[in-house]
Amino acid sequence: MEALTHHALLLSLALFAVGVAGVFLRRNVITVLMCVELMLNAVNLAFVAFSRSLGTLDGQVLVFFVLTVAAAEAAVGLAIVIALHRNRDTLDVDAFSLLKG
Amino acid sequence: MTPLMEELLIAVVKVLVIFSVLLTLFSLMTYAERRLLAFMQFRLGPNRTGPYGILQPVADGIKLFFKEEVVPEGANRWIFVAAPGVALVTAFLAIAVVPYGGPVTVFGREVSLQIADPDVGVLFIFAVSSLGVYGIVMAGWAANNKYALIGGLRSAAQMFSYELSLGLSWVGVILLAGSFRLPDIVEAQAGGFWRWNWIQQIVAFLVYTVAATAEVNRTPFDLPEAETELVAGFHTEYSSMRFALLQMAEYVNMITVAALGTNLFLGGWLAPFTSLQSLGGIDLGLLWFAAKMLSVLFFFIWLRGTLPRFRYDQLMQFGWKVLVPVAVLNILVTAAVVVLLAGSEPEAEPVAPTEVGLRSPVLLAGPAGALG
Amino acid sequence: MPEAILEDPILNALPFMVLLLPLLGFVVLALFGDAIRREGRSFGACVLACVTVIVSFGLAAWSVVRLWRLLPGHDGLRFAQPTLGRGLADGLSWIDVGGLRIPFSLLLDPLSAVMILVVTGVGAIIHVYSLGYMAHDEDRVRYFSYMNLFTFFMLLLVLGGNLPLVFVGWEGVGLCSYLLIGFWYRKKSATDAGMKAFVVNRVGDAGLILGMVLAFHAFGSLDLVDIASNAGSLAPEALGQVGVVTLVCLLLFLGACGKSAQIPLHVWLPDAMEGPTPVSALIHAATMVTAGVYMVARLAPLYSRSATALAVVAIVGVVTALMAATIALVQTDVKKVLAYSTISQLGYMFLACGVGAFGVAVFHLFTHAFFKALLFLGSGSVIHALGGEQDMRRMGGLRTRIPWTFWTFVVGTAAIAGIPPLAGFFSKDEILEGTLLAGERGLFAIGLLTALLTSFYMARLLFLTFFGRFRGDHETEHHIHESPWSMLAPLAVLAVGAAVTGFVEIPAIVAPAFRFPHVEALHVAWLPYAATLVAVAGIAAAGYLYLLYTDLPGRIAASLRPLERLLQARYGFDEAYGWLVRHVVVGGSQSLLWKGADVALIDGAVNGAGTLTLAVARMVRTAQTGFVRGYVLVILGGAVAVLGYLLWRP
Amino acid sequence: MIDAVLFYAFAALALGSALVVVGQRNPLYSAFALIVTLVSLSAIFALLGSPFIAVLQLVVYAGAIMVLFLFVLMLLNVKPEGDPPAGKGVLRTAAFLLVAVLVAEVGTVLWRATARVPPVFDASPRRVAHLLFSPQYVYVFEATSILILAALVGAVALARKET
After folding, report:
1. Nearest to C130, CA basis, from C142, C121, C139, C140
2. Which domain holds residue D151?
3. How far C627 CA sits from the closest chain A CA (Å)?
4. In this predicted model, what pLDDT tens digit does every residue of D95-116 receive, in sequence order?
5. What does the pLDDT look like over C617-633, one tens digit per residue?
6. Domains within chain A, CATH numbers bracketed
7. Pick from B218, C395, C413, C649: CA 20 to 30 A from residue C314's CA?
8. ipTM confidence
């Protein structure tokens, strides 16, 4: 079991790294959002693994909250994506640079 | 032979048994549906193959086997191929945790009549059935056919909307039983049909019936495959084996829903009168269960024979503005009652810590089902 | 203080209830005033206001009695918080910074006991009176809400256990005074008067604040009890020696001057008569204006350590007394006469404080509250009868027309003039005696002279108003009518009070509050006779001039034109101040503060900040590429850095 | 034993599909791959003895969030990305360096971490719920409900066509 939890942590690390990489590799907003979800899941995995190895349940509760936040984030994020697509007719992250000072 | 291996063996055996049962049931359903509809519409229906056309399903099977597989031009091959599998896997995964009877002893060994019994049973079903959408969406999208796509999106939206009230309708029952495990829920209804949940949870029961019908895209909620509007909906482009698989998924879902409803509201394998639970020492649980489940299935067919189809906006309106509020209200009332009767918040009797390993069968069940 | 007292739950709660009831009334009226008015329920609301004050008077009386029974001859109790709040250590802390800790603590000792009785008692009476007086004002709900608020603040002022709390009450009553003077805000003179009062008081309050700060700096505490009990250990400062104690006392006294209308800050009180008469009676005669006296008396132990401060207090007091009395001679407006009389009487009280007879000062405060309130209400009744007429020259002969008012007024006049055995006689007598005992013959002489003047102008007021024949027009004469019972009953009650309060041995009662033993004044045998003689003389003279030979005053005035003009000009204080403000303040502000400080410094700084920000922003904003993943990169870098720090932290 | 097998199988599946998510240019494929990742993660959760979370993972992520993604993708009919424009190389390399450092750091953390696991571990819904609704977390829980509400309104307001 020790090995499993420990390797679970390693897996979460790998997933997180992949997610970060994705944010930089992909230019499609939606894909970027998905990469963010991926990172969140990596974190969740870490939580669960720790919860298991520490024998406490707080990790699971935290995962619960992460899920909630992720749901909210996805909803709003996708709504924004739709709005963007409606107005700018593109989903390329780099196209949205109106904030350029 | 280590206990784990035994577990595994039993699991596999169960999987195989239930799988075969489902196959037969599925084929019988197709037959029964056609016959009954015909009967309701003063037709004869299939009656050539074998006595009363009983062999019709077999004939269909064979036909479908030997038909050519068509993957339409411009379709997204991978997804097109994957879709039926996904649909089926989710269907089987769901049914994997549905019990068919109380624990029985085989070779002096306690065996529960259910592939796997996680203590999150109901939730698991909910989760898996929420995956069911993908099969349809994928099928609809991959075919690169507008009817299919519309059908897919429709059904996705529909399942989405009605899953909510479906799940909510369970909560009342769960509250009463105080457990997610289906066996517990059934046992909680022990003692005569008046103790079954469909009495004290009548609201939830009605909500469940409606939502379940919608969930499995049956009339009057069969918009995703509304022939008059979208040819055949998401499986317009499917033919031969894959078509069969999709059909099968549909029916398995239907069976799941029926079985689940039986367990949740109709007292599962319990007899209407405790005296009838067993005859001459033989437990009749399975029979009762089958009887109830089949009658529910009949009810579905009956509906199809009776009701017209909803309009899409009506469907959505109804789902969100009627079913959900009602279900929530029911939960509130039930919770209040439970708390009041319990006097105070029920103390958590420490659940016996279960070994982690025992949960793997759940995960086996799915692939196993898909393998078939 | 013995724990036994604080353990008494009722006694613990009472002061707070006394304090909060009027506030409750105010809140109700303030929140629902308009609704009530629209409902046409104004009268009920006003009754509610009265009830709150009356009840709180009852509670005050109860608490005082209880206090006495519990601990005879004690020197006061601090009330941390009502029992319901017992959970907290000692009172909710209002301010708690560094060494400064200011709880919401109330102090109920003989002094504040007397004060709350006066405030709630007289207050209640005047509230009732207002019922009749304001009956025809459609805005009377607002009026009563202000009155309740005032009562609350006044109680806070006298009950406050530490200077800041007292200060809150102090400012609060100032505010209410402003609101009530300008109650008829459509009358410009009224609003002006309100503002004048407010501004003049600010001058005093500046002194008060400085005094408080200095006091905290010097004594390390603002708790009244602490200050009082620590004062004994302070080194006494001789006459002409200005140490910290003197400084504190003088600064605080400046505040007292403002509130109690002492020279040079007395100018606001006469104008304050623009307000409704009951207001003048409650705020500008009985309670608020005596706040200064109360504070000085409250800090008696402190003042008695500084001869200089006492001297200043005494001199200011006596000068004010004399000057106000002289001005009162030539006033023709009923309320103006009373106003100056009030100033003069307050001067008397400060005189008493100045010669160390604090108890006597409070005594006079006590009696004065009654007869001056009586006089004001009486004049109010007169004005009411004459439909708003305030000029004595158009009055006269009302004796028979409004007998109740007349007789009560007579009592009040006799009381203030010092005719035994009425209240004024005793208190004034003791003040004069105090000056004698202090060996201040000069002060004594002036005091006596002032007494003469007092009885003279009061008698003049009485005669001009009630005797002779009516000098107004027929219209008003036709409408003359006695006031309703709701106004007469208070007059009667106050008349009784003015008659008998002299027998209450206030000095002996409040003595413990001053931390030094009450010296039983060895009575100067001849003084009472002299005082009475003086009073009678004044009245006689007034009668001679204004009843028998009514043309005489005019000729005297003509013969003493310059003096008369000086008095009419009220010694030219207003003009002087006006000139000061116009030329010095305004001019200085324009040339120096506005052109110099405001434009050059402040605006310069602000604009400079603006331009600076712009310049910086122009540089910084290049970092804002608007390129989302650039930001993400930065975030990632931050995460890496933080994690790295956590890992390989030294 | 069988747990271990399943674990590594699902771990491999998760990692592989995650790589597909990132490597794939067609967002739709990424979405499907991500679904696979999520499901296999849920399986891993179950294996780690957290059935409740596992189920939640399915319901919320696979059941709700990803459906949303698919919807949007199909609704907007998103096309695969074209070739990346040149010149963003700097950023990319920097990103990779940082990621590498991050991995190194977390790696060291894990390296230092000592794994000792209680033999029995009960994460039954009941116990999780008891913790979740204990004073310790209940306020946060309520707060999240507010958050959801806000997100709901926000999403509607954003996606609605201005009429």
Report:
1. C140
2. 119-163
3. 6
4. 888 888 888 887 887 777 666 7
5. 888 877 777 777 778 88
6. 3-90 (1.10.287.3510)
7. C413
8. 0.68
